[in-house]
Amino acid sequence: MAIEDDVLVIGGGLAGATAALAAADAGRDVRVRLVTYKQSTLRHASGLIDVLGYAPGAPEEGPLVDPFDALADLPEGHPYERVGSDAVREALAFFDDVAGDAYAGSHTDANALVPTHGGTVKPTARYPVATADGLASDDRDALLVGFETLPDFEAPLAAAHLEATGAPFSARGTTIPFPGIVRDDAKVTRYAHLLDQDEPVTTGAGETGAREALATTVSEHLEDESRVGFPAVLGDEHAAEVRTDLADALGADVFEVPMGPPSLPGMRLEDLLYDALEERGVRVTSGVPVIDYETAEADAVAADGGSGDDRIDRVVVDRNGTEIPHRADQYVLATGGLVGKGVRSERERVFEPIFDCHVPHAEDRYDWFVDDVFGDQPYARFGLASDRELRPLDARDEPEFANLRAAGAVLGGYDFAAEKSGAGVSLATGYVAGTRAGEEAE
């Protein structure tokens, strides 16, 4: 017997979670299930929600002030062109409702410039409140603090890079020991846990709480800066409390600098989304790959005597060696791109591995890339082509299946890394795909 749902979302990243939430909110009682195989890529993401940071093909023009001004000029086939700018706005509003007071940026269409751990600034539309006091548009001087056991953040180097970008403030960096941690292989969650629980740690002055010990060490390096930036490890469940305690002790505002993977802000975003899924009654099945599918020919017959479009009847997942069928009326594919292996390449072809949907690409594999490593790489845009309903298209530009939509990085036609548009595309296409699936589910 197949497990029955109205909407089945395949993939547990930002696009998949957004699609499942949107389907559940489609306006009536819709049974939604999300199935995911591997750990969500959110854990490796910055936690920032970027809509469009740079114009496609013109990064030299610098960060976009208002991403919405550029959406109308995007090429045909870009995911934003497929869904339209109104849907991008609706998706951001949807995210704002889900995120609540955990994220900032909804007050303006303009991109915020958020400093990163490398000393660059990233244009982004929504950002965790933990980073709000660190925006590069703020002219207050800043002290960046790194930890000896966390080499991913070289605070003095990051500060120098920030000043070189022309940031309107003086930045200075220092590196200190983190109270209670002496090993350089400690996970970021260990730093967060120490501060979350305010665990006792031993210092030269005796035993004290981790928060007080950290503030005491930093205060020795603080001059006249009115804000202090730390790697994004300042607590998890009690992050706001940790920042407040540190700010009170230092007499300066405290902010987090987004880090590379593994990313605590990404983990917080994942928790936020999956808590919302649970609240909305979305069933989540994790650790199960989709290994097969079956189709059913549509009942309708076209007036000219042709047959209707094929529909996906069921998919089969592998649960510890047992094949379990799942049937739904509508499906959303949100398995990621080349990095997430939602799109795969071999020497002779590029393909989508679950439904074998068509991936447009040159026949000659030497046309998949250019010699300039910093050039405009064709492979960066590999992914499914879709219609405006986000239904994947075959080689004849016809929908592959009547009841399948795609969302996120599995879609092609854009270079998320160069454009700084990855999270925004996942959010917008996940919202549209999930909403349409929820509305059409029987």
From TrEMBL:
Domain FAD-dependent oxidoreductase 2 FAD-binding stretches: 6-425
One GO CC term on file: glycerol-3-phosphate dehydrogenase (FAD) complex
GO molecular function annotation: glycerol-3-phosphate dehydrogenase (quinone) activity
Gene3D superfamilies: FAD/NAD(P)-binding domain
UniProt keyword annotations, A-Z: Flavoprotein, FMN, Oxidoreductase
Alphabetized NCBIfam families for the sequence: glycerol3P_GlpB, PRK05329.1-5
Protein name: Glycerol-3-phosphate dehydrogenase, anaerobic, B subunit
Organism: Haloterrigena turkmenica (strain ATCC 51198 / DSM 5511 / JCM 9101 / NCIMB 13204 / VKM B-1734 / 4k) (Halococcus turkmenicus)
Lineage: Archaea, Methanobacteriati, Methanobacteriota, Stenosarchaea group, Halobacteria
